[in-house]
């Protein structure tokens, strides 16, 4: 029983250990995953008949310029797709757009980390 308690304490201490700070590249990749998740959400809104003007109105509330530009670009691209192309396999369409915009974001040159809230 004492060994089990000691093991539990050690595991708890290891779990509470300080995490190493992320490199700028790791931070950018995390940001891009968030952009991809936003693209997936925008696709879901499109599939659920949310109007483009409502999506743009919501996107314009984003305070960070970089993030707003990404989101407005996603909205333009997603709402340009024909409904037939996104209504068949909705999960596949969402995953495809998420992966596409994650990769586009990663490939985008950047000087500083945007101020954003993860999606």
TrEMBL record:
It comes from the Bacteria. The lineage of its organism: Bacteria, Pseudomonadati, Pseudomonadota, Gammaproteobacteria, Moraxellales. This is Lipoprotein. PROSITE patterns: PROKAR_LIPOPROTEIN (PS51257).
């Amino acid at each position: 029983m004492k060994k089990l308690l000691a093991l539990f304490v050690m595991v708890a201490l290891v779990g509470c250990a300080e995490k190493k700070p992320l490199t700028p590249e790791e931070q950018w990749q995390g940001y891009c995953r968030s952009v991809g998740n936003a693209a997936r959400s925008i696709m879901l809104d499109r599939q659920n008949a949310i109007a483009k003007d409502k999506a743009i109105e919501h996107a314009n509330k984003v305070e960070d310029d970089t993030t707003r530009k990404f989101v407005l670009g996603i909205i333009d691209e997603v709402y340009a797709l024909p409904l037939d192309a996104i209504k068949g396999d909705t999960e596949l369409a969402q995953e495809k757009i998420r992966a596409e915009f994650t990769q586009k974001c990663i490939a985008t040159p950047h000087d500083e980390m945007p101020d954003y809230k993860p999606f």
